[in-house]
């Protein structure tokens, strides 16, 4: 806190980490709704945990804030909550990882890597089955009402 009062806050301070909200990488959002990368590079409904996983795996100093919300996000569901803070620069102002000099480079990398996560590839198969079961249940309820 004292460092913030004097005005000399180092980039290694947690308050100086860059923030990445899932909305920045979401291909279901428009630019007005908060997407910050091209739609063809964006991911379908990324979560803050997935962003944290890919950034930590590449070697970033990562901090997950579960209860933070993106201000433009109207949906208050748990899956839309959270933001990831990433240390982009060291004390001397140089990038922590030379291949990621800007916040945009980090966002593009995360969006490129999230679809390759094991949780993503498994979820795709599992969600289809649960949808089919849900439809079957609805048909059954319809018959009972008659």
Automatic annotation (TrEMBL):
<feature type="region of interest" description="Disordered">
    <location>
        <begin position="117"/>
        <end position="146"/>
    </location>
</feature>
<protein>
    <recommendedName>
        <fullName>Signal recognition particle 19 kDa protein</fullName>
    </recommendedName>
</protein>
<keyword id="KW-0963">Cytoplasm</keyword>
<dbReference type="GO" id="GO:0005654">
    <property type="term" value="C:nucleoplasm"/>
</dbReference>
<dbReference type="GO" id="GO:0005786">
    <property type="term" value="C:signal recognition particle, endoplasmic reticulum targeting"/>
</dbReference>
<dbReference type="InterPro" id="IPR002778">
    <property type="entry name" value="Signal_recog_particle_SRP19"/>
</dbReference>
<comment type="function">
    <text>Component of the signal recognition particle (SRP) complex, a ribonucleoprotein complex that mediates the cotranslational targeting of secretory and membrane proteins to the endoplasmic reticulum (ER). Binds directly to 7SL RNA. Mediates binding of SRP54 to the SRP complex.</text>
</comment>
<keyword id="KW-0733">Signal recognition particle</keyword>
<feature type="compositionally biased region" description="Polar residues">
    <location>
        <begin position="122"/>
        <end position="133"/>
    </location>
</feature>
<keyword id="KW-0539">Nucleus</keyword>
<comment type="similarity">
    <text>Belongs to the SRP19 family.</text>
</comment>
<dbReference type="Pfam" id="PF01922">
    <property type="entry name" value="SRP19"/>
</dbReference>
<dbReference type="InterPro" id="IPR036521">
    <property type="entry name" value="SRP19-like_sf"/>
</dbReference>
<dbReference type="GO" id="GO:0008312">
    <property type="term" value="F:7S RNA binding"/>
</dbReference>
<keyword id="KW-0694">RNA-binding</keyword>
<dbReference type="GO" id="GO:0006617">
    <property type="term" value="P:SRP-dependent cotranslational protein targeting to membrane, signal sequence recognition"/>
</dbReference>
<keyword id="KW-0687">Ribonucleoprotein</keyword>
<dbReference type="GO" id="GO:0005730">
    <property type="term" value="C:nucleolus"/>
</dbReference>
């Amino acid at each position: 806190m004292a460092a913030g009062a004097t005005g000399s806050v180092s980039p290694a301070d947690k308050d100086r980490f860059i923030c990445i909200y899932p909305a920045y990488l979401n291909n279901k959002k428009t630019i007005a709704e908060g997407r910050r990368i091209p739609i063809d590079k964006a991911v379908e409904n990324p979560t803050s945990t997935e962003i944290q996983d890919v950034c930590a795996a590449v070697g970033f100093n990562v901090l997950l804030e579960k209860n933070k919300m993106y201000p433009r996000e109207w949906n208050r569901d748990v899956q839309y909550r959270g933001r990831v803070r990433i240390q982009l620069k060291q004390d001397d102002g140089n990038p922590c990882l030379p291949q990621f000099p800007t916040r945009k480079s980090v966002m593009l990398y995360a969006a490129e890597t999230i679809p390759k996560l094991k949780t993503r590839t498994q979820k795709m198969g599992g969600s289809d089955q649960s949808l089919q079961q849900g439809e079957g249940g609805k048909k059954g309820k319809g018959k009972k009402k008659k």
